[in-house]
Design a protein that fits this description.
The chain is an alpha+beta fold and 351 residues long. It folds into three domains: 7-225, Lambda Exonuclease, Chain A (Alpha-Beta Complex), CATH 3.90.320; 242-293; 297-339, no CATH class. Helix content is 36%, strand content 23%. The chain is built from nine helices and ten strands. The chain has helices at residues 22-28, 37-44, 55-81, 157-170, 195-214, 224-230, 243-277, 303-308, 328-331, and strands at residues 7-9, 86-97, 105-120, 123-138, 174-182, 185-192, 282-285, 288-292, 312-314, 322-324. The strands form three sheets. The chain has a six-stranded mixed sheet with strand order 1-2-3-4-5-6. Helix 1 packs across helix 4. The relative contact order is 0.10.
Length: 351
């Protein structure tokens, strides 16, 4: 019932701490390149607030949102003109909640009703008034390498998890993916519902929400950074090492010593080679360039200049509408507590 009878909304999406969406599904499954399950849990439970995104990624997302209508129209035209399908656009940015578990939610970029035949990954699929989910993606840079052949299901796995989540909530069989790689054309991909995958995803998502978010119990860490997030502060007490951990400490100490030797060697070799090249810019051997030492700009933030700068932010209390930032460096700085693993030389116990 829950997969075939979703509840849909057109109101603004609620606070993201109140539901698991499509991109969250990839994180819960350990497939997201942006968040681990533990990082997602910290966000959903309010342990941390979402940090400002990298400007480049923020710009990419903003561009992708603006391009959605453009991508959608190009995809519809292509389905009609090149694939010969009958196409009806039935919804845009409609939001759905699972009927059984309303905390499972999704927003579908656009929805189509399709009639006709299409080949997906070499297999013919017949649509007879098929209601399908559709997603618009702007694909740039290195992300292009993660997409496979067109007219297949070869999409990045984190997106596949997102699309499968959307089909799980809406109960549909197909998700069309319109990928804009240039302004000349869109390339069409698909994700076809796999009931075994949905059956495996669903309990994991439900368990994550009930057993971890609602119960306020962190999921198991999957990388060392997760462990540091779980234990940002120490309790000041000592813990006796097992033989296995003591052996790993000794090995880590040895690795660090070897790295120090290599770093010193790197410094010596770099100095000798640089001294030989100077004042030239390139080093050749038997006619081939084997090294270069060219002047380049080194751009760094001038903290002192920031301290002295006069910067202003909007203000509702100042008559000018703006107020001066008293300490710009502090205003734009962020601090957090971290723990550093340091190796200490063993000391003989006191008699």
């Amino acid at each position: 019932m829950s997969e075939t009878s979703p509840i849909y909304h057109v109101a603004p999406m609620p606070d993201r701490k109140t539901f698991l969406g499509g991109s969250d599904a990839a994180a819960v499954m350990g497939l997201s390149p942006w968040k681990t399950p533990l990082e997602l849990w910290r966000l959903k439970t309010g342990k941390v607030e979402p940090e400002g995104m990298d400007p480049a990624r923020l710009k990419m997302m903003a561009r992708g949102h603006k391009l959605e209508p453009f991508i959608r129209d190009m995809a519809i035209d292509k389905l009609r003109d090149e694939y010969g399908l009958q196409v009806e656009l039935v919804a845009v940015n409609r939001r759905y909640n699972d009927r059984e578990h309303p905390f499972l939610a999704c927003e579908i970029d656009f929805e189509l009703v399709l009639t006709g035949d299409i080949t997906i990954g070499g297999t013919l699929h017949h649509f007879e008034g098929e209601h399908v989910n559709a997603d618009a993606k702007s694909v740039t840079g290195f992300a292009r390498k993660k997409w496979g052949e067109v007219d297949t299901e070869d999409v990045p796995i984190e997106y596949a998890a997102q699309f499968m989540h959307g089909m799980m909530v809406t109960g549909r069989r197909y998700c069309l993916v319109a990928a804009l790689r240039s302004f000349d054309d869109v390339e069409l991909y698909w994700t076809v519902r796999d009931d075994e995958t949905v059956a495996a995803m669903r309990p994991k998502l439900v368990d994550f929400w009930i057993d971890h978010v609602q119960a306020d119990v962190p999921p198991d860490p999957i990388k060392f950074d997760d462990i540091k997030l779980l234990f940002p502060l120490d309790n000041g007490e000592k813990v006796e090492a097992t033989d296995e951990i003591a052996e790993k400490v000794a090995r880590l100490r040895q690795v660090k010593a070897e790295m120090k030797v290599l770093e010193d060697l790197e410094t010596v070799l770099t100095f000798d080679i640089g001294e030989f090249i100077s004042p030239h810019s390139e080093l050749t051997y038997r006619g081939a360039t084997i090294a270069s030492w060219k002047a380049q700009r080194d751009n760094r933030v001038n903290n002192e200049a920031i301290k002295q700068a006069e910067l202003y932010v909007p203000s509702s209390t100042d008559v000018t509408g703006y107020e001066r930032i008293a300490d710009p460096l502090a205003h734009f700085s962020r601090s957090k507590t971290i723990r550093v693993l340091r190796l200490l030389k063993p000391k003989a116990p006191k008699a």
